[in-house]
Amino acid sequence: LRQRLAVASAVAGVATAGWLYLRHQKEQQQRARRLRHLRALSLGQGDFELRDTSGTPRRKKDFLGRWVLLYFGFTHCPDVCPEELEKLSRAVELLERDPALPPVQPLFVTVDPERDDAAALARYLRDFHPRLLGLTGTTEQVREAAAKFRVYVSAGPPDADGDYVVDHSVLTFLVGPDGIFRDCYGRSSTAEEVARSVRAHMDTYEALPP
C-alpha cells in the first residue's frame, strides 16, 4: 500500500510540475506577444522637446530608466484635469508606500502653451504631488508631443473675455523604463486601480529590445 501511495504521489508530483511548466510557458508566450504588440503599436515612441518649470530643456529620453505616469492637460481646465491629477498623485503616493518598488515619475504636459508658461505651471502644480513635473514649450513642440501619444487636442473659440476651453483626450499614460508605452488609464480608473496596474507591470517588466 505504501509503495502504491508513493507511486501515486510521484505521478501526481510529475503531473503538477508539468502543468506548472506549461502554464509558465503560456505566460511567457503571452508576455512576448504583448511586447511585440507594444513595439508594433509604436505609441509614444518618438522623442519630444519641451521645458520644465525651471526652464530646463526636457526630452523623453531624459526619463529612460524610470517608470513614468504622464498626463496631458491644461491649467485652466475647470474640473477634469484637477481630478485626474489628484488621482495620478494619489496613485503615486500609494506606490511610494512600498519602498521595494522603483519610484514613479509623474509628468504633466500642457496642451495650452499659450497660457501655460513655466510660471503658470509652477503655480498650478503646487497643489498636487510634490514630484509632479510640468512641461511646456512652443505650440509646435506641444502639438508634436501630443501627436506622439495620439492625444487629441482642439482649442475652442474664445468667449467675450478671451477665455477658452481646450478639448483633449483624457488619458494617463504609463511609460516603462525603456521609454515604451505600457498602458493607459481613463477617467473610470481609480487611483487604487492605477496603482495596482502599475505594480503588476513592474512585477512582469521585460525591456523591449531597441
TrEMBL record:
Q: Which residues bind Cu cation?
A: C77, C81, H168
Using the record's annotation, list all stretches that form the Thioredoxin domain: 39-203
Q: Which UniProt keywords apply?
A: Copper, Disulfide bond, Metal-binding
- What membrane topology does the annotation report for this chain? Single-pass membrane protein
Xref: Pfam families? SCO1-SenC
Disulfide partners: C77-C81
- Where it mainly occurs, coarsely classed, is mitochondrion
Name the PROSITE patterns for this protein. Answer: THIOREDOXIN_2
Q: Where in the cell is it found?
A: Mitochondrion inner membrane
Q: Name one GO molecular function term.
A: metal ion binding
What are its GO cellular component terms?
mitochondrial inner membrane
Question: A GO biological process this protein is involved in?
Answer: mitochondrial respiratory chain complex IV assembly
**In which domain of life is the source organism classified?**
Eukaryota
Q: Which PANTHER family match?
A: ELECTRON TRANSPORT PROTIN SCO1/SENC FAMILY MEMBER, PROTEIN SCO2 HOMOLOG, MITOCHONDRIAL
| Family the entry assigns | Belongs to the SCO1/2 family.
User: What name goes with this protein?
Assistant: SCO2 protein
Native organism? Tychaedon coryphoeus
Upper lineage is:
Eukaryota, Metazoa, Chordata, Craniata, Vertebrata
Which gene name does the record give? Sco2
